[in-house]
Amino acid sequence: MVFGSLFFLTAFLPPVLLGHWALQALAPRWRRATAAANLWLLAASLAACFLSDLRGLPVFFAVAFANDLLARAVAASRRPRLRKALLALALGGDVALLCVFKFGGALARWTEALAGSALLPASWLVLPLGMSFWIFRAMAYVWDVERGVHPPARNPLDFLCWMALFPIFVSGPIVRWADVAGSFRSRPFSAPLAASGFRRLFAGLAKKVLVANNLAPMADAVWAMADAGQAVTPGYAALAAAAYSLQLYFDFSGYSDMAIGLGRLLGFDFKENFLWPYASASVREFWRRWHVSLSSWFRDYLYIPLGGSRRGTARTCLNVLVVFALCGVWHGTGWMFPLWGLWHGLALCAERLFGPKRAKGAPPPRRPAALAALRFLAARAWALAAVAFGWILFRSATPGAAGVLLRSLAGLAEPAPAVRALVLELSPLFAAAFAAGALLCFPVVPALRRAARRVLPERAAWTLESLGATALGAAALPFLASGTRQAFLYFQF
Fold first, then answer.
1. What's the average model confidence in pLDDT over 314-325?
2. Are the CB atoms for 257 and 431 separated by under 8 Å?
3. pLDDT band at 360; cut points 50, 70, 90
4. Cβ-contact 380, 279 below 8 angstroms
5. Mean pLDDT for the chain?
6. Are 271 and 173 in contact (CB under 8 A)?
7. pLDDT over threshold 80, residue 357
8. How far apart are CA 362 and CA 333, in angstroms?
9. Sign of the four-CA dihedral 476, 480, 484, 489
10. Would you give the distance in Å from CA 154 to the centre of its chain?
11. Which string of DSSP letters, residue by residue, matches 161-212?
């Protein structure tokens, strides 16, 4: 079920919230109120995530049951080798199952094209909704139990509710059990938390509907030409690359904002998933700010176990390349996703090898103001250019399409006659969305919030922020009602 739909916002969400709040209101007088609220959330989540397609439900239950059982076996064992063996069984099974469903369909189609028949019908291997995200949460859960980060969930139904929780089911954030375990035991209703949840929900909806959706037509039109082998002018190529960079950010950060807001409405406090990544001064900093839950997952469960940066520069660079190649593979089939991952890995290695060096804890060197400003701008220009180049690889269906767009960007290709039709995409809505996106992808809103709190009473600043978020959410509703809704980009991963 798509967050950015009128059905979700008007028919599904209100009864779910009212039922949950009613159960939570009974908590002071009924000891089992939170457990009942968890069951209510579990039922609502399963309906939201599987009612439209029941094929993934058995896979989800199998993954949840197996990982919970193995985590309990790991915790009960006092033999280190057995614990490691059980952990390996859980992780190996999760990875194998994810690979079967993520890449098995493509493999079935390839074998059918080559041999005339497939080992399994491709229709049997449809990727269950959100599988890439809830498999990663299950893997982290078992691994953290083995490392002693937290014990297994006391109640298997709480674990199942966390695995199925609809705000984070389809596209993350990858919320770890340790961050929300306490909320499954007690989360009394809080009006301030619910109010901040509505504000965050409306802001995320506006990001998706008002900004990302209105940037998509230009990017889609230019990439459609590139897929057909048709070049465009350098200006259109640069505009499309910038539009897609902004579209992807506002689409996915908008989804994350909505998930965080929905979590607050239900009494959960999820961590931030985007920290103004386009304000980064390096690719390394970008990955500390972009999709934080995924990048931290790869850091904690892959990069550090591989040795991290503890075994010298050469091994560190190899670890980085392996991690980012696998990050690319996680995003999808085809050559372009691993190429995108390897590009980021190479950029990070280049920064490590050739970037400025400073002893740990040492203050930055004092420089003339003009030189410091130049370095400030150059560092951010490098980060933006490197990330935008990566998004061209990420968005292109084939190396050929990426090559056409890159040659167009460099002015090395003759624009096709069809490029004249792109002027139709330069609508006022696109211009407004592009201007808003180019401004708001930097930390302007926090600066305005701080300024408002300095000059206004706290209640007035809070009211102003609430009215602004509500107005943005209301402005998005006509676009939803028009039927021009687009699915979130990360649904495909």
1. 96
2. no
3. low
4. yes
5. 90
6. yes
7. no
8. 44
9. positive
10. 29
11. HHHH-GGGTTT-----HHHHGGGGT-----HHHHHHHHHHHHHHHHIIIIII
41 close to 145: Cβ distance less than 8 angstroms:
no
Structure tokens at 307: 């040795």
* Residue 45 near residue 115 (C-beta atoms within 8 A): no
| pLDDT tens readout for residues 270-302 | 999 999 999 999 999 999 999 999 999 999 999
How far from the centroid of its chain's Cα atoms is residue 90's Cα? Answer: 24
- Cα three-residue angle 122-163-262, rounded to 5 degrees: 110
Q: What is the pLDDT of residue 55?
A: 84
Task: Work out the burial of residue 345: count CB atoms within 10 Å of its CB; fewer than 13 is exposed, 13-18 middle, 19 or more buried.
Answer: buried
Lowest mean pLDDT across 156-165, 206-215, 359-368: 359-368
Which is it for the CA torsion 320, 321, 327, 328, positive or negative? positive
Does position 107 have pLDDT exceeding 80, yes or no? no
Residues marked active site are found at 331
Closest CA to 88 of 349, 316, 305, 264: 305
Q: For 433-449, what is the mean pLDDT?
A: 94
Task: With beta carbons less than 8 A apart as the criterion, state whether 210 and 479 touch.
Answer: yes
Contact 382, 354 (CB under 8 A): no
Burial class from Cβ neighbours inside 10 Å (0-12, 13-18, 19+) for residue 407 reads middle
pLDDT of residue 335: 85
Nearest 5°: the CA angle 209, 487, 430 is 40
Amino acid 308 reads G
The answer to whether 6 touches 480, Cβ cutoff 8 Å, is yes
Residue 322 pLDDT more than 70? yes
Distance of CA 325 to the CA centre of its chain: 17
Residue type, 224: A
CA distance 355 to 347: 11
- Distance set, CA 355 to CA 185, 285, 336, 479 (Å): 47, 13, 27, 45
pLDDT number for residue 37 = 94
Q: Is 0.70 topped by the overall pTM?
A: yes
Q: Is the alpha carbon torsion for 33, 36, 41, 44 positive or negative? A: negative
Mean pLDDT throughout 19-43?
91
Would you say 266 and 23 are in contact if contact means Cβ atoms under 8 Å apart?
no
Tokens of 259: 């998930």
Residues 6 or more apart whose Cβ sits within 8 Å of residue 304: none
First to last CA, the chain: 16
Angle between helix 156-164 and 131-147 (nearest 10)? 140
What integer is the mean pLDDT of 46-63? Answer: 89
Read off the pLDDT of each residue in 22-34 and give the average, rounded to a whole number: 88
